[in-house]
Design a protein that fits this description.
single chain, 111 residues, mainly alpha, Helix Hairpins, 3 helices, rod-shaped
């Protein structure tokens, strides 16, 4: 092989590697859209957690208000039940948020 053939062959290999290694603008746009979708899912999950925490805190405040100044066993039991509702709110929101985050991970993996 002469020098020109070697240079030509090296140039062709470099060009092939460059074109295969670069994403097209369409591919970059598709990946950006996928990333935005995953980010949106994660933002929704965060919002669900934030809203649930606020709702659960309000419920717990009601339980605390029920207990204030009252030592009746019935009131205490009712306040405990109200606090359990706050836990249920948090647990349900956490499950929903976790599911959204899993969807976000799946979306990213399909890139």
């Amino acid at each position: 092989m002469n020098t020109n053939s070697i240079l030509l062959f090296s140039g062709v290999l470099a060009l092939a590697n460059f074109t295969v290694g670069c994403d097209s603008k369409q591919e970059e746009a598709r990946e950006a859209a996928v990333e935005r979708k995953a980010d949106n899912l994660e933002e929704r999950a965060d919002k669900i957690r934030e809203n649930a925490e606020a709702a659960a805190d309000k419920v717990e405040d009601k339980a605390d208000a029920m207990r204030e100044g009252d030592t009746d066993e019935m009131t205490e039991a009712s306040a405990d039940a109200v606090e359990e509702t706050a836990d249920v709110i948090r647990d349900a929101a956490e499950r929903r948020a976790d599911a959204l985050e899993e969807r976000a991970d799946d979306v990213r993996e399909r890139k």
